[in-house]
Amino acid sequence: MFMARILVIEDEAAIRRVLVKILTEENDAYQVEEAENGAEGLEKLKKQEYDLVLCDIKMPKMDGVEVLEAGRKSKPETPFIMISGHGDLDTAVQTMRMGAFDYISKPPDLNRLLTTVRNALDRKELVAENRILKKKVSKNFQMVGESDEIHGIKEMIDKVAPTDARVLITGSNGTGKELVAHWIHQKSPRSSAPFVEVNCAAIPSELIESELFGHVKGAFTSAVKDRAGKFEAANKGTLFLDEIGDMSLSAQAKVLRALQESKVSRVGSDKDIKVDVRVVAATNKDLQKEISEGKFREDLYHRLAVILIRVPSLNDRREDIPLLIEHFSGKIAEEQGTAPKGFTEKAIKLLQDYDWTGNVRELRNVVERLVILGGKEVSEEDVRLFASK
């Protein structure tokens, strides 16, 4: 059972006792501690981890506003519920602007107090779960490597991510263009908003416009109801257009308009919908060649390629292969619930000498095959037997 630690900071002993009594009688999973003044409460907050703080606003020496301000600096994820007297309403509202979760009035109403406490604890638990999930997502989209090429990409991402500049990522299939797009999003101010991915090569040309911009009921035979597109789904976040070189010219024209005017219209509708979307695109094609052949719009290219990031092939960064083998071996072991399997130096050297036409994606598949079929430690012989193409 989750044991919630709650700190009550209140200088009036009678009210403090009431608060403690209400909380402990309501739920035996509430572990409640007390502080008689702001300074004592702040000292406890610095030394201990609390899931919630109830803090009076009017206290001698150090008032609740000062405690909130200092507490938010040292423990920004700990929610505060402020306790306000009759004349403290304006100050209570001010504390919410400073980051307090909510406030309750004296004398505390039983139902209001318990509801607010439950909501604050639920919110903290949700924030903690989201943080864990983001770490897991970040780990899944980790860029592994210490080569100059990978360091250059990481430095570029660090510079570009905080901005809203559009990015065009180029590179062969399997090099990790999607990882670069995820990293840009995760390191950006939009990281808490959606990351929406569209594989332009996987969607038939007659459906790509509906996929991107949505449609209204009756726009075409199978449009049985209104449907939002990916631009709307990615509002306030990032839209990743993978393999944009495969997009039809008519869809390219609509994407260009969306980028120019920050608005879209659903298929079958003339109503404009405002969108706030950062577009990151990727391609394995030579778009300059596509432009010269009339297959890609030059004006769209210049809109997308504000920042260009080229992801190198695995053959161009062979020094990263030992790190990638270790990374994939650990991930595969985690997925299968087994201990990571080691690779001998000769096995790694042999893998470094391979021609990796399928790039990192191919290496990952080969490592998984070797982990499953190889011995306790993957040997050079295992590589010769099981990693042949």
UniProtKB/TrEMBL annotation:
CDD domains: AAA
GO MF term (any one): ATP binding
Cited Gene3D superfamilies: 1.10.8.60, 3.40.50.2300, P-loop containing nucleotide triphosphate hydrolases (3.40.50.300)
GO cellular component, one term: cytoplasm
Compartmental location: Cytoplasm
Signal peptide feature range: none
Record domain Sigma-54 factor interaction: where: 143-372
GO BP, one annotated term: regulation of DNA-templated transcription
Keyword entries, A-Z: Activator, ATP-binding, Cytoplasm, DNA-binding, Nucleotide-binding, Phosphoprotein, Transcription, Transcription regulation, Two-component regulatory system
Ranges of residues in domain Response regulatory: 5-121
Residues recorded with modification 4-aspartylphosphate: 56
Keyword Zinc-finger (UniProt): no
Protein name: C4-dicarboxylate transport transcriptional regulatory protein
Species for this entry: Robiginitalea biformata (strain ATCC BAA-864 / DSM 15991 / KCTC 12146 / HTCC2501)
Upper lineage: Bacteria, Pseudomonadati, Bacteroidota, Flavobacteriia, Flavobacteriales
